[in-house]
Amino acid sequence: MALPRITSPHTTGSNRTQRVMLQVLAATLPGVAALTWIYGAGTLINLIWASAVALACEAGVLKLRQRPVGFFLRDGSALVTAVLLALALPPYSPWWLTLIATAFAILLGKQLYGGLGQNPFNPAMIGYVVVLVSFPVEMTTWPIPHAVGLGAGLQHILGVTSLPDGWAQATALDVLKVNNSLTIDELWANPAFGHFGGIGSEVVNLAFLAGGLFLLHKRLFSWHAPVGMLAALALMSLVFWNGSGSDSHGSPLFHLLSGATMLGAFFIVTDPVSGATSTRGRLIFGAGVGVLVYVIRAWGGYPDGVAFAVLLMNLCAPTIDYYTRPRTYGHRKAERGFKLGE
């Protein structure tokens, strides 16, 4: 008897993954707009260049693996990885920095494990950590808001010249990390600080919060992982907040509106592939990320710990899933009946 040949459901018909990825890309638009308004065209250049590199790397590997290139490129997953990575990089990053980060994200973070749905780590965070560890100076230098023109920015991207000292600065998290003598009130006179979480950073975080709430409204993910991360980060910063002294690690509001907090909470920890799967597991996963973000920011060697925290919790996701598996319907009743039968 000849059995019918049935293909996998994701190879024919409508591509639901594409619709999901397009909604994620749409949710990043407020953050893109905020970054572009504050830092100029550098963010858009990062996005275009990272997207081109990601699609080229994805197509090359798919060709080598003899997979349908057009179909998998259209699902939008490589584009989402490139966009999230480009948004995390400093605007006007050198072209080679974006190239290395994106290539590692697609090749090492995604395709090495078999492609979409197979990666145990978040690909965008893999690429980000690779360049952060390898090139810390370039990764911790951001342009001063509304200071860099397109011409100077392009020259910096191409390596012709570096940004003038008056056009580049450390982030608020960097300043707080190396501070040993100034009080918080004195630090707030630094150009890197804004009203709550660093000049520019607070606006960008609020923009990504708006995009994340849009995704929650569309029910693309549950609230457990974002709320777990933000609540744990706020609680840790509240417990260890020692006022405005020189040894202060910053207030809860500062940590919630600094660095990549909202980008991580709504666009990174919600990754359904590399995170936990059960609702209780996602809450624990998000809380673990929040705790690690604060630990790295306060006592670690890097000013912002979102990428490291996510990757460390990616390692813990299988264990979290093992201990938070939902009870199978009717399991206890069947077990009780079996014992009575004995």
TrEMBL record:
Keyword Translocase applies: yes
Membrane topology per record: Multi-pass membrane protein
CC cofactor: FMN
Subcellular location: Cell inner membrane
Coiled coil: none
Location of FMN phosphoryl threonine modifications: 171
Lipoprotein is among the record's keywords: no
GO terms (BP aspect): electron transport chain; transmembrane transport
Pfam families: NQR2_RnfD_RnfE (PF03116)
Transmembrane stretches, start-end: 20-39, 45-64, 71-89, 95-113, 125-144, 192-216, 223-241, 253-270, 282-300, 306-324
One GO CC term, this protein: plasma membrane
InterPro entries in the cross-refs: NqrB/RnfD, RnfD_bac
Assigned EC number: 7.-.-.-
Keywords: Cell inner membrane, Cell membrane, Electron transport, Flavoprotein, FMN, Membrane, Phosphoprotein, Translocase, Transmembrane, Transmembrane helix, Transport
Similarity section: Belongs to the NqrB/RnfD family.
Binding partners and assembly: The complex is composed of six subunits: RnfA, RnfB, RnfC, RnfD, RnfE and RnfG.
PANTHER family: ELECTRON TRANSPORT COMPLEX PROTEIN RNFD (PTHR30578), ION-TRANSLOCATING OXIDOREDUCTASE COMPLEX SUBUNIT D (PTHR30578:SF0)
Physiological role: Part of a membrane-bound complex that couples electron transfer with translocation of ions across the membrane.
Protein name: Ion-translocating oxidoreductase complex subunit D
